[in-house]
Inverse folding.
């Protein structure tokens, strides 16, 4: 077997608590399908037959009961539950399932919606015998108004600085703005080996990683690494250029030296394979080099290599913020050839459903309602004379007569009283909006949720 | 009729006896058997009435005629096989059904050929008649053209597509406009890798073979020796992970397992002559494993065979060649090399270590610019080098005292197949009376005969010729210009008149002795 797929679905959705306080993130409906369906679909299309899903008990229950998921997803899902309270990072989760991992792994996050040709990422991993191969995409500006945002856009989240070499494939440098105090520090060893480096900031990390098996073993030995993205990936990128065991800085603490040596030693040892001599011979006899202009052999003789595939065009969203959630809902229905109106939905003829809206099954849409550019979830009841524009209605929502909903997100099981006028709001799960209410640009959640931080 | 039957029986029993003993039929025996089979088939056809030739030449498709012919076709072999099946030898069953299948296939092909509306008849006839049943007036032994030089023949393409589908190997499609003289060769693009259509955790093909194929298609492993070593390394891993299915023999099943892998690799990049010889060796070793050998023992033996093959044919051979070659390098020599040949680089490095005083001129050519890598290795060693492009060849040659060339393969008629540009170098060197020495290991000798570079060659990605200078890429949209074709050849052949000496691990031989070496090798095996 070549690769095992691991789907990380235990995250809490900490950046969109308003949406996720009642519904776990993997089950949030996007385009009338649960969010977790998208990475599963990606893996299935490419040919995986089995996925290890790391998630919480709630999601596991839903996975086993959701009819649609069961019929759509034909792969075998090996669900591993972890306690929500344990607050495991992604690397901790990998350590947890270490026994199941027999080959190299492909780690995917549950909030990734993309149509990338996965073979591009995996080919880099295969061809160069890379230790890490990841996917990044150009960031798209979100154009939709986000409910609850007070006027000006927040000054962008912490940027990632990603350094690649001239070919645009080899990953040389990765740091988050938060970790850089005064400025960007580049090691001389990197510049000596790769004098031309392109540093990009407008990239979105898709959280899709191909990792060698030896990395998992390395994680087992180094329990201090908790997060793949936050700690493991920058560590691997840095270690490509670290000095070998022979030469060491004399100024560093000798204790720390020893630990670092051991860690590094482990990684190198674990990544050598048998028949190394033959591979070495083939490489020596081959007239190929990945760089030119200096005297060193291919890859500068380094064993650890990290590669990145940067998507120029195509769709790649990480649904971890409200803005991304809204954007994804806008774009995703165009991907699939599902009929926009589910055959099991009851839509009255006197209503007007725009061509860019989708209606889930078991919906009940009454007369003289107009639905434009919106996504309506399953089991939703919409009474007469309702106008819905540019909104996302989740499952089990009841909307009474005469409402006007614009640019909003209505979560599961909410009830909107008659005649309410909701503009650019987020109505939390299970909330009731009183009749004749007029809300603009508000986040309506329960009072007990307000204390959550 | 009965006489035919018994003769066939005898023949089949002979084949099975020979196979059962595990010894390969020699070439002569195989030819003889083939001749006899063809005679039988010809007699059968004559029995049935109107010969096939009339059908072939018919310009108007006559669907009724082939319809009546094909049942007649099928009827004739069936009674033969039915009577043959009465003979009690159980092991004959596979041989019998093969003959039956072949007859069916021929009947189907004939009917298809006749029903096709006279499309490119003459061209089709000349190429399609070769792999099909030969008219018995010509010599009975037919050399089948390999698939990779028949790309413009739709019948051959269909056959290939069917074979690949059966083996679950993706078919790679050609890219771009092909120059008409080379339209019979494949032309692939690096932007459409062969892995586009296979599932990501590959199931039909071993992962190390997929990795190897990718490395070939992207040029990460390039050069005849490197490709062979990498191929054998991948085969070692395949053998390591192999387990015999129940009711199967390792000696037969493993060879069948390797066939789709080899098809996949040839889809990534056409196989080189050295790779072909290595594969032949491996297959022979596998079929020679005795049946009672345990699986672990057999695998260990095969791994040892591979290791010894690499050791003998590549590593020790290069050491032997260096020893001979260093005798030819004297102090004060100016040696010209072309491109990056691993063997020539090795020789020069060894000579430098043995304190010979010489300098090297590295000649390079676009689009591969492999000479830069050769230059790097030689300069790293400490050898004094000069670097020119091939366009400056005639200016630099008066300084040169010897030319050392590497080879991709040595053909049976003494021609040297090497990187494109080598024949130029040999030609100009001859004009200047500079000795040309070709260094080549014996495992690269191949039995093919070629006198020109058109018949069998390799077309590389045409987009490699596109270059950006001063921010302008003139050839960017070359596909939109209908009258423009980009040609990126990889190999060319040098006639033996331009080569003065071939240095092999068997010694220093003239170019015309290559067929002798081949004959001696065959006798050894």
């Amino acid at each position: 077997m070549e690769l095992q797929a691991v789907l990380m679905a235990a995250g809490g959705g900490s950046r969109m608590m308003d949406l996720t306080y009642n519904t776990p993130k993997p089950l949030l409906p996007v385009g009338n399908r649960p969010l977790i369906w998208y990475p599963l679909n990606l893996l299935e299309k490419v040919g995986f037959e089995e996925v290890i899903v790391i998630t919480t008990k709630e999601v596991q229950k839903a996975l086993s009961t959701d009819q649609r998921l069961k019929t759509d997803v034909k792969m075998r899902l090996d669900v591993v539950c972890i306690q929500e309270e344990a607050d495991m990072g992604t690397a901790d989760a990998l350590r947890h399932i270490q026994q199941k991992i027999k080959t190299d792994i492909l780690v995917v996050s549950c909030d990734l919606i993309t149509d990338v040709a996965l073979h591009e990422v995996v080919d880099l991993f295969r061809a160069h015998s890379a230790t890490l191969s990841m996917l990044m995409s150009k960031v798209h500006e979100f154009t939709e108004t986000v409910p609850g945002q007070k006027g000006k856009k927040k000054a962008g989240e912490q940027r990632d600085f990603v350094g690649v070499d001239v070919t645009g494939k080899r990953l040389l440098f990765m740091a988050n703005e938060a970790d850089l105090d005064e400025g960007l520090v580049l090691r001389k060893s990197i510049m000596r080996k790769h004098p031309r480096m392109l540093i990009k900031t407008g990239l979105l990390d898709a959280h899709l990683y191909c990792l060698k098996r030896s990395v998992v073993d390395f994680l087992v030995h180094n329990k201090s690494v908790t997060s793949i993205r936050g700690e493991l990936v920058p560590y691997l990128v840095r270690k490509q250029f670290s000095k070998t065991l022979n030469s060491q800085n004399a100024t560093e603490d000798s204790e720390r030296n020893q630990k670092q040596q051991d860690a590094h030693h482990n990684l190198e040892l674990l990544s050598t394979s048998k028949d190394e001599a033959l591979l070495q011979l083939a490489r020596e006899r081959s007239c190929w080099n990945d760089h030119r202009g200096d005297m060193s052999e291919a890859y500068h003789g380094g064993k650890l290599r990290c590669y990145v595939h940067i998507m120029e065009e195509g769709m790649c969203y990480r649904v971890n913020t409200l803005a991304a959630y809204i954007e994804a809902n806008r774009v995703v229905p165009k991907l699939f050839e599902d009929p926009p109106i589910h055959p099991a939905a009851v839509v009255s003829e006197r209503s007007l459903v725009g061509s860019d809206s989708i209606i889930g099954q078991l919906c009940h849409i009454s007369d003289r309602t107009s639905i434009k550019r919106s996504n309506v979830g399953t089991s939703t009841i919409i009474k007469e004379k309702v106008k819905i524009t540019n909104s996302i209605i989740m499952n089990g929502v009841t909307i009474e007569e005469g409402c006007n909903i614009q640019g909003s997100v209505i979560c599961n099981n909410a009830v909107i009283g008659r005649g309410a006028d909701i503009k650019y709001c987020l109505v939390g799960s299970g909330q009731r909006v009183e009749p004749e209410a007029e809300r603009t640009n508000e986040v309506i959640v329960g009072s007990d949720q307000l204390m959550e931080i | 009729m009965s006489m035919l039957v018994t003769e066939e029986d005898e023949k089949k029993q002979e084949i099975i006896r020979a196979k059962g003993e595990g010894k390969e039929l020699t070439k002569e025996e195989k030819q003889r058997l083939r001749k006899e089979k063809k005679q039988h088939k010809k007699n059968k056809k004559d029995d049935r009435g109107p010969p096939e030739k009339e059908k072939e030449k018919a310009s108007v498709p006559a669907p009724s005629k082939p319809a009546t012919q094909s049942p007649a076709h099928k009827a004739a072999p069936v009674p033969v096989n039915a009577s043959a099946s009465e003979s009690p030898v159980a092991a004959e069953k596979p041989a019998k059904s093969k003959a039956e299948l072949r007859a069916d296939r021929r009947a189907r092909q004939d009917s298809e050929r006749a029903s096709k509306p006279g499309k490119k008849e003459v061209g089709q006839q000349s190429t399609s008649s070769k792999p099909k049943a030969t008219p018995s007036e010509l010599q009975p032994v037919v050399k089948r053209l390999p698939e990779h030089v028949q790309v413009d023949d739709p019948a051959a393409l269909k056959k290939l597509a069917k074979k690949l589908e059966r083996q679950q190997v993706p078919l790679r499609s050609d890219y771009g406009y092909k120059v008409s003289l080379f339209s019979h060769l494949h032309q692939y693009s690096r932007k459409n890798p062969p892995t586009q259509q296979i599932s990501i955790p590959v199931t039909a093909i071993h992962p190390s073979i997929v990795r190897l194929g990718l490395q070939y298609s992207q040029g990460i492993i390039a050069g005849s020796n490197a490709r062979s070593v990498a191929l054998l390394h991948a085969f070692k891993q395949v053998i390591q992970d192999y387990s015999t299915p129940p009711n199967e023999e390792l000696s037969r099943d493993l060879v069948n397992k390797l066939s789709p892998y080899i098809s996949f690799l040839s889809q990534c990049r056409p196989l080189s002559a050295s790779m072909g010889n290595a594969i032949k060796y491996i297959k022979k070793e596998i079929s020679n494993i005795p049946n009672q050998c345990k699986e672990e023992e057999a695998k260990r033996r095969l791994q040892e065979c591979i290791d010894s093959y690499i050791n003998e044919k590549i590593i020790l051979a290069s050491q032997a060649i260096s020893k001979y070659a260093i005798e030819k390098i004297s102090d004060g020599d100016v040696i010209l090399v072309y491109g990056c040949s691993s063997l020539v680089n090795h020789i020069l490095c060894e000579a430098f270590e043995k304190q010979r005083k010489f300098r090297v001129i590295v000649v390079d050519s676009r689009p591969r610019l492999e000479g830069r890598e050769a230059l790097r290795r030689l300069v790293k060693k400490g050898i004094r080098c000069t670097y020119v492009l091939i366009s400056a060849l005639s200016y630099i040659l008066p300084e040169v005292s010897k030319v050392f060339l590497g080879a991709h393969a040595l053909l049976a008629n003494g021609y040297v197949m090497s990187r494109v540009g080598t024949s130029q170098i040999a030609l100009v060197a001859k004009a200047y009376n500079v000795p040309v020495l070709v260094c080549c290991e014996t495992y690269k000798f191949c039995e093919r005969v070629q006198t020109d570079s058109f018949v069998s060659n390799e077309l590389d990605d045409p987009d490699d010729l596109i270059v950006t200078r001063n921010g302008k890429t003139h050839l960017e949209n070359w596909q939109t210009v209908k009258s423009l074709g980009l040609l990126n050849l990889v190999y060319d052949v040098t006639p033996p008149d331009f080569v003065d000496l071939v240095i092999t691990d068997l010694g220093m031989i003239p170019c015309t002795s290559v067929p002798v070496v081949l004959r001696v090798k065959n006798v050894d095996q």
In short: The first helix of chain B runs from residue 2 to 20. The beta strands of chain B are 333-338, 358-364, 384-389, 402-406, 409-410, 416-419, 436-439, 491-494, 501-504, 507-509.
